[in-house]
Amino acid sequence: MRVRPEIFLAVTACASPLAAQRWQRSTPATPPAADRVLVPAGPFTMGADAGGEPDERPAHTRVLAAFAIDRHEVTRRDYFRCVRARVCNDASLRRGWVNPDAPVTGVTWFMAERYCQWAGARLPTEAEWEKAARGSDRRVYPWGNEAPTPARAVYGLRMNVGEPASVGSRPAGASAFGALDMAGNVWEWTATVYDPYAYRSPETEPTCARALATYADLRRRGAYAFTGAMGIPARCERVLRGGAWNYWPDGLRSTNRVHHEPTGAYPVSGFRCAVTP
């Protein structure tokens, strides 16, 4: 159900009336100015041959056209612009989460897609997301191969008390192209259907039909660990990337793939948008 922006304002204001009302009442109903980094055309290595989960293998070369991707994750403030414009549905906010500069969470894949379209953009594909995160030198994390630290990423916080930080608050974690928060803070929806076997035939874009056939094959084989702790999906799902504020350090690697139903709205999941120049 579409919720009117004034109702959204009242609900979120309950957590901290003054803090929420100040920024929401001054938020315009127009798309924010674009702040994106350019990722040039050319090849990069996607996936890994060792470590991680089986659905991250094998490493393979992808050649992508040039694209631009948001420097930051979409913030609560920017997402509320779309709500105020009566285009987007409200996000599911946790009580007490009122920082307007933190990434928006509690949005479904469909809500993320709708926002990007309203902003004149689209969700990035899984391949675009990974190239923007790891560059062309096969780095493990956006910043390089060194292990995560609190200066580089927001991670390792307790689920019941932690929360994402303001976007761009970890500049030391920037990717080779200058994108920020691509490890930790929040998981990010991509446009791509989750197919655990996708890397076996990377020349074709995954489809729901192919993905459902893969899920059935994994169940027949009893390969429940193939997709990691997420398990084998029952319905067609979408890929999320990047890790979140409650995730462990190793899970922040740029090849890590997770998946959820596109109708799910989670306190650890947000998004950023992309465009084709």
Topology:
Blueprint: H1 5-13, H2 17-25, E1 36-39, E2 42-46, E3 60-64, E4 67-70, H3 76-84, H4 109-118, H5 126-134, E5 187-193, H6 208-221, E6 238-241, E7 258-260, E8 269-270, E9 274-275
Parallel strand pairs: 5-8
Antiparallel strand pairs: 1-4, 2-3, 4-9, 5-6, 6-7
Name its key features.
3-stranded antiparallel β-sheet, alpha+beta, 277 residues, disordered N terminus, paralog of FGE (formylglycine-generating enzyme), 9 strands
Compose a concise summary of this entry:
The protein is of the alpha+beta class.
Write up this protein.
- With 277 residues, the chain is of the alpha+beta class.
- The protein has one domain (5-275): paralog of FGE (formylglycine-generating enzyme) (Alpha-Beta Complex), CATH 3.90.1580.10.
- Helices cover 22% and strands 13% of the residues.
- It has helices spanning 5-13, 17-25, 76-84, 109-118, 126-134, 208-221; strands at residues 36-39, 42-46, 60-64, 67-70, 187-193, 238-241, 258-260, 269-270, 274-275.
- The strands form three sheets. Strands 7-6-5-8 form a four-stranded mixed beta sheet. A three-stranded antiparallel beta sheet has the order 1-4-9, with helices on one face.
- The longest helix has 14 residues, at 208-221.
- It starts with a helix and ends with a strand.
- Mean pLDDT is 92; it is low at 1-15.
Number of domains: 1
Query: What's the total helix number?
Result: 6
**Could you say which overall geometry the principal axes of the C-alpha atoms support?**
globular
CATH topology: paralog of FGE (formylglycine-generating enzyme)
CATH superfamily: paralog of FGE (formylglycine-generating enzyme)
In the CATH hierarchy, the architecture is Alpha-Beta Complex
Strand content is: 5-15%
How confident overall, as mean pLDDT?
Answer: 92
How far apart lie the N and C ends?
34 Å
* Broad CATH class: Alpha Beta
Largest sheet: 4 strands, mixed
Quaternary structure state of the chains depicted: single chain
For the largest sheet, list the strands in their spatial order.
7-6-5-8
The percent of residues in helical segments reads 10-25%
